[in-house]
């Protein structure tokens, strides 16, 4: 009779799967067993399984072990028990799930758009393109923000390259976390997704510049930029956890949201601590853009004069009404 045994973690994540043929099975740490466990809390001969041909049932028995065996109900197995398909037994710090060949399986899941995006980002041409674009944009902004009299082209490109290398560390960390959790590292996916999403921060900066150019200084657009930054950071962590760890959607949302809140909360506290009560040297944004960046076309000089005259006429009429 066939029997499938799955080694699962405490979080019910699959570690290994084995299929056996026969009427008896031995499980333990000894090398004579059919399934050998490396858990030091497991005895040399820990579990014995046998198949009863008359009843067509599997039976499992703990071999009077030191730490015992715990069934799915959380009770210690003191006597031989019937083994049903799907039962989980804890031996030492290990968990084993027993399945019969006819055990039902869940329906197959269609690839989502997110998975297609993750696979697309793992292509070498996408990775090289995104990293190159990210580095060049960094170099361009560094060049624009440097006094032309003090510019050093080698330093501009070196700093941009160092920024890309620093960003490169994060996907390496995520891939390592996946590796130590016995999941597929998927390093290329992590690199591609990280650089694609981090590049979106340039959209937030550009949006802030456009809105600041089109609005008066009395209207603050910082909250829009902050909201975009928080959303992009959350998406980055969500996709990193989606690739690295097999988590439930709610748990992934909590992890990504918590890490985002931690980072932006720390930044907020640091800014609040460093901000003086009175700044005798306020910063002035003298950024100048071409009229092409205006969201609304400006008035001509004739229209301005005409609108001003109408405004003054309306004001005079209102003043006369009050005096009457």
Automatic annotation (TrEMBL):
Question: Is Transmembrane helix given among the entry's keywords?
Answer: yes
The record, for Pfam families, names: FHA (PF00498)
- List where this protein forms a coiled coil: none
InterPro entries under this entry? FHA_dom, SMAD_FHA_dom_sf
Q: Where are the transmembrane segments?
A: 122-144, 156-179, 191-211, 223-243
Cross-referenced Gene3D superfamilies, in alphabetical order? 2.60.200.20
FHA domain residues are: 25-69
CDD domains to which the protein is assigned, alphabetical:
FHA
Tell me if Membrane is a UniProt keyword of this record.
yes
Recite the UniProt keywords alphabetically: Membrane, Transmembrane, Transmembrane helix
- What name does the UniProt record give this protein? FHA domain-containing protein
């Amino acid at each position: 009779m066939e029997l499938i045994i799955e080694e699962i973690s405490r979080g019910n994540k699959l570690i290994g799967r084995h299929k056996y043929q026969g009427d008896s099975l031995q499980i333990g740490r000894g090398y004579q067993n059919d399934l050998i466990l490396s858990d030091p809390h497991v005895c040399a001969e820990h579990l014995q399984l046998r198949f009863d041909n008359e009843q067509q049932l599997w039976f499992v028995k703990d071999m009077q072990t030191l730490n015992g065996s715990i069934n799915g109900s959380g009770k210690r197995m003191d006597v031989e028990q019937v083994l049903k398909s799907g039962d989980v037994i804890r031996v030492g710090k290990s968990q084993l799930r027993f399945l019969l060949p006819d055990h039902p399986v869940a329906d197959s899941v269609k690839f989502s758009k997110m998975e297609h995006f993750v696979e697309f980002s793992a292509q070498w041409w996408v990775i090289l393109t995104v990293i190159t674009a990210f580095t060049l944009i960094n170099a361009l902004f560094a060049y624009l923000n440097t006094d032309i009299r003090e510019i050093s082209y080698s330093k501009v490109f070196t700093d941009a390259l160092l920024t890309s290398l620093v960003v490169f560390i994060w996907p390496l960390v995520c891939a390592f976390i996946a590796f130590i959790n016995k999941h597929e590292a998927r390093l290329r996916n992590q690199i591609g997704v990280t650089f694609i999403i981090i590049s979106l921060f340039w959209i937030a900066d550009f949006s802030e510049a456009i809105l600041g150019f089109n609005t008066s200084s009395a209207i603050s657009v910082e909250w829009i930029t902050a909201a975009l930054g928080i959303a992009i950071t959350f998406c980055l962590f969500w996709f990193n956890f989606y690739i690295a760890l097999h988590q439930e959607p709610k748990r992934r949302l909590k992890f990504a949201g918590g890490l985002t809140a931690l980072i932006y909360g720390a930044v907020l506290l640091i800014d609040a601590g460093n901000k003086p009560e009175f700044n005798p040297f306020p910063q002035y944004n003298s950024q100048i853009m071409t009229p092409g960046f205006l969201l609304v076309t400006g008035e001509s000089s004739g229209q301005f004069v005409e609108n001003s005259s109408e405004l003054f006429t309306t004001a005079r009429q209102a003043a006369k009404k009050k005096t009457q």
